[in-house]
Amino acid sequence: MGGRISGNARGILVACTVGSALVGALGLAFGKPAVAAGGLVASTAFFGAFALYLIVTERRRHEFAEDELQAQATFLESLVDSIGAVSSTLDAAEILDRTCEEAKRLFESRSARILPPGRQGADGASPGGERMIVPLAVHGERLGDLELVRPEPFHRWDHMRATVLADFAARAVENARLLEEARDREAERERLTERLITAEQDERRRLSLFLHDGPLQSMSGIALMHDAALAALQDGRSDDAAKVIENSLEKERDTIRVLRDLSFAIEPIVLRDQGFYAAVRALGDQIEMTHRITVVTDLEAGERLGEKSQVALYQIIRESLNQAVRRRPLKIEVAVRERDDGGFETEIADDGVEERRRGSIEAIDERVKILNGRLSILSGEHGGTLVRVVVPPYVAAARGR
Predict the structure, then answer these.
(1) C-beta separation of 43 from 28 below 8 A
(2) How far, in Å, CA of 194 to CA of 216, rounded?
(3) Residue 102: pLDDT above 70?
(4) Is 379 in the same domain as 285?
(5) What are phi and psi of 400, to 5 degrees?
(6) Which position has the higher pLDDT, 192 or 294?
(7) Is the pLDDT of residue 390 over 80?
(8) Rounded mean pLDDT of 276-293?
(9) pLDDT above 90 (res 336)
(10) Do 54 and 166 have their domain in common?
(11) Which of 24, 239, 329, 349 has its CA 20 to 30 A from that of 52?
């Protein structure tokens, strides 16, 4: 309306100026100086009025444009402050709460809330006000919708500004979630590292105790037997010396066998050269030959494990077999199977009747922790023991070749 009035006034002034000029020109043409002078004076007056009108209207237009720019700048400053308030926290839920608070302040809304994905609220305008819904999405994932309600209608620029705020909030939520996931992974890595260090320390401790109580004691005994044999030879008792040397040789061979078995257990050559199936089957053959215990194996799935996982699982099976032998069973069954979720399950079952030793169970549990697996030890209905180890799929993948 104001634009139409201004346009009409401008047209009237132009028409009056042109008309006055024509009157002055006609007065000169017909030889009437008074009419010509009056027309020129009126034309000059109307031209001056038109010029003054243009100056005033242009000034008002510039003032209006300045006010609009100032309002835009003020809103942008408020939007920047709102973005700063939203990004001042790293908690996803708090980010959404602050987004609602800032949106309510920026758009002078009566209410602001986050709707879950797929829920659009009530259809149409909310009672007593207008409603605007802006999606919160990042990388194609819909996090929810920002709903604003106020008495005045929303304009196109309101929707554009709310979209900017919603997009920033969605990215802030994603960054908060990624940071939380990174913290969880770091905590898990630290926990697994601590388990690995603890397991390595326990393994070194067990190895040190084994060497001290086993081979070193045997070597000390052999040294004493050699001293006795040497004394017998010096006294001329060659028969006694021969018997002592014969016994010391037998004890020395036993010590060499123990050390060879220990070396094989630490780094099994068969596992490295022939694979998982051959290494575990060799353990079973050794038990059958030494202890007359039947060992049944089902190990084909173990060949699909990574190299490091095979070594760790081999150590678990070896320890479990050694413990099963102490329970004096007639039969031991060893099976490695792949689960539906991609993980692996290992079972060592025996029909022994002897009691399980807690220290031995803890030794197996420490080895299972290295694989971040789950250990369960069950008793059969008619006696016997079932050792079950479940390894998650990501461990096999992470420790693969």
Answers:
(1) no
(2) 31
(3) yes
(4) yes
(5) -75, 180
(6) 294
(7) yes
(8) 88
(9) yes
(10) no
(11) 24
pLDDT value at position 12?
61
- Rounded to whole angstroms, the Cα distance separating 275 from 154 reads 71
Q: Do 354 and 325 form a contact (C-beta atoms < 8 A)?
A: no
Q: Look at 55 and 176; give whichever has higher pLDDT.
A: 176
Q: Do residue 76 and residue 96 come from a single domain? A: no
Task: Determine if the pTM surpasses 0.70.
Answer: no
Strands (E), 88-223: 111-115, 130-138, 141-150
> Are 322 and 295 part of one and the same domain?
yes
Task: Pick the range with the lowest mean pLDDT from 58-62, 71-75, 266-270, 376-380.
Answer: 71-75
pLDDT of residue 4: 45
Do both 78 and 96 map to the same domain?
Answer: no
**Distance between CA 347 and CA 368 in Å, rounded?**
13
What are the residues facing 336 on neighbouring strands? Answer: 346
Number of domains forming the structure of the chain: 3
Domain of residue 307 covers 269-401
Structure token pair of residue 119: 């829920």
φ, ψ of residue 372 to 5 degrees: the values are 55, 40
76-90 burial: b if 16+ Cβ within 10 Å, else e? eeebeebbeebbeee
Asked if pLDDT for residue 124 goes beyond 50, the answer is no
Cα–Cα distance list, 193 to 157, 202, 304 (Å): 54, 14, 25
CATH assignment of the domain containing 334: 3.30.565.10
CA dist 63 and 55 (Å) reads: 12
Q: DSSP letter string over 141-208?
A: EEEEEEEEEESSPP-HHHHHHHHHHHHHHHHHHHHHHHHHHHHHHHHHHHHHHHHHHHHHHHHHHHHH
Q: Do 274 and 165 fall into the same domain?
A: no
> Do residues 350 and 376 share a domain?
yes
Question: pLDDT exceeding 90 applies to what percent of the chain?
Answer: 6
